[in-house]
Amino acid sequence: MGERASRIAALLAGGSVEQGMVRLEGLLLSPGRAALVSLAEAAVGVGLLAVSARASLRLLGLPVPFTLQTFALTLLIVLLGPRAWRAVAAYLAAGLAGAPVFALGGGPGYLASPSFGYLLGFLLAALVAGRLSRPYSRRALLRGALLVLPLVYLPGALWLSGWLAAAGGMAWRGAVAEALWAGVLVFLPWDVLKAVAAAEASYHLLRLLYRAGQAGRRGA
Predict the structure, then answer these.
(1) How far apart are CA 195 and CA 75, in angstroms?
(2) How far apart are the C-alpha atoms of 115 and 53, rounded to whole Å?
(3) How does pLDDT run across 43-82, given as a tens digit for each residue?
(4) How many CA atoms, within 13 angstroms, populate the side-chain half-sphere of residue 130?
(5) What string of DSSP letters covers the chain?
């Protein structure tokens, strides 16, 4: 029974089983604590993405608003690594279920939003870039952070192109060109700065957590 509980907790938390305990990167936790950590990570991730979505600025003529979400997303991805997708999936599920956590609200009608493709890119980035932000080093964290951008932009620009063609009546070539300008190039300098800032903040935060853990073990 204990081994089964450990396997279930490891599956939920994205860790591995070691002698009846759950290995979660540098932590060795009981199955109960591992499950609680996983739930806490998802809850904090949903809250962080929701708050950052509200910090938005919509410029005239742009179908996609400026937000702090790519900063929050990158922070989650480089901190949680391969576990980040759980928080992003929970955020998308909450928004589509009707919680007003997206930049322009929530609900299943958000599927018709011009910016929904970027939300799909959030999940893709969490699945791919999270694994490539390891091991913990400044270079790996920066690599993972910068990789987030094309993984978000690609489905976002494709979705926006389709929306411009369908809702705006634009020819496909014109829709693609407009999506690249209004949905990628306008945001690129700002998003690169946010990615670098998120990687640097994560590096220093992880160093502090590591030192606190080392001090705690020495004290024990």
Answers:
(1) 8
(2) 12
(3) 999 999 999 998 877 776 777 888 889 999 999 998 888 8
(4) 22
(5) -HHHHHHHHHHHHT-EEETTEEEETTEEE-HHHHHHHHHHHHHHHHHHHHHHHHSEE--TT-SS-EESHHHHHHHHHHHHGGGHHHHHHHHHHHHHTT-S-BTTB-SGGGGGSTTHHHHHHHHHHHHHHHHHT-SSSHHHHHHHHHHHHHHHHHHHHHHHHHHHHHHS---HHHHHHHHHIIIIITTHHHHHHHHHHHHHHHHHHHHHHHHHHHHHHHH-
Task: Please state, as a whole number, how many other Cβ atoms lie within 10 Å of the Cβ of residue 15.
Answer: 24
Strands 56-57 and 66-67: antiparallel
pLDDT at position 1: 42
Q: How many residues does the chain have?
A: 220
Burial of 172 (0-12, 13-18, 19+ CB in 10 A): exposed
Would you tell me the crossing angle of helices 31-54 and 2-13 to the nearest 10 degrees? 20
Residue that is written with structure tokens 């853990």 in the block: 213
Task: Give every residue of the chain whose pLDDT is below 70, as ranges.
Answer: 1-3, 5-16, 25-27, 60, 135, 210, 212-220
